[in-house]
Amino acid sequence: MRVGVVGLGMGLFLATWCRRLGMEVVAACDRDPGRRAEARELLPDATLVDEWTALLEERLDAVVLANDFDEHAPLAIAFLEAGVHVLSESAACVDEQQARALLAAERRSAATYSFAENYVFHPHIQLVRTIVEAGEIGRVNLIEADYLHGMAPDAVASLIGDPEHWRGRIEPTAYCTHTLSPVLALTGALPTEVAAYPVDSADPRAAVVMLVRLDDGGLAITRHGFLQGEPDSHWSWFSARGSEGLAESVRAPGERAWSVRVRKDSWTDPGGNVRDEEREPAPLILPDGTRAESKAEGTVRILEGLRACVEDGRPPLVPVLPAVAASLVGVAGARSLRENSRPIPMPDLLAGAAHRAP
């Protein structure tokens, strides 16, 4: 399987994992000569170029897009039109027009679009999904998800205050897919309305809370940005409350942060007993027989999913519709912030369009 990579920051990490999992990285692109030089050390046999359009001339089965956060959709559309399978590492789109263009391009293409949302496949979120799918906590009606960094104030200011960095130019709600994508994967729902609130009105760019209504009737509360007390499970904490119980990742240090607490109250038990237990996720064993780091499991599963799309004709693990839906929540959230936290309806992405079955 021949893979190309655009962007050699996060892209070099993904390229290294591609090679470790048995894929051939044959071409890569970055405008920064220093990054290309670093990539030469790790990808000695790959063609390295400074413009992504050159990768369209390569004989690729798939491309990994790891360029700047808010510049993925035009590249994804171009590669889909060339019949190349796409794995997009960051926001799928920055507005509704891009969303609809990407949906249309994927429908026309013989290739597939996959969203590289590794948080959907983190161990604690996978374990919550298993609990929900087994019916242990009943119908899910409230989900909470955090993606938080506990950085020092000067470090935060230098990052989101730098207009030359993508973190400095995007809206404070934009980087929401690490919270929204797991919500949509767990429920199979789509968002219908978004209201966003700054955590601190004196510093509104630092952290936001969003209330997201889902089309299955449930509600999601997401928190992301820069707040103290970041979770040890790769900055992620996740909770699902159902009609018969609760499943939430454990707020604990180290490896225990990947475990999940299950709580069912006495009325759900014929014997009147409260059930409150902690479960550890099963380890992921790599093809070479070693155990994957917990924080790398999502990346491994996403890349293996891409290979299954290319080699076995399997559908994407996170397909294009939930990808653009999660990304557009950030767009609606930004508008909500500008309009004094007014609830903003989401566009109907299904109107007039047929999509591949997930």
From TrEMBL:
Domain of life of the source: Bacteria
Assigned keywords, A-Z: Oxidoreductase
Annotated ranges, domain Gfo/Idh/MocA-like oxidoreductase N-terminal: 1-114
Annotated stretches, region: Disordered: 339-358
PANTHER family: BCDNA.GH03377
Protein name (database record): Gfo/Idh/MocA family protein
Species of the source: Nocardia carnea
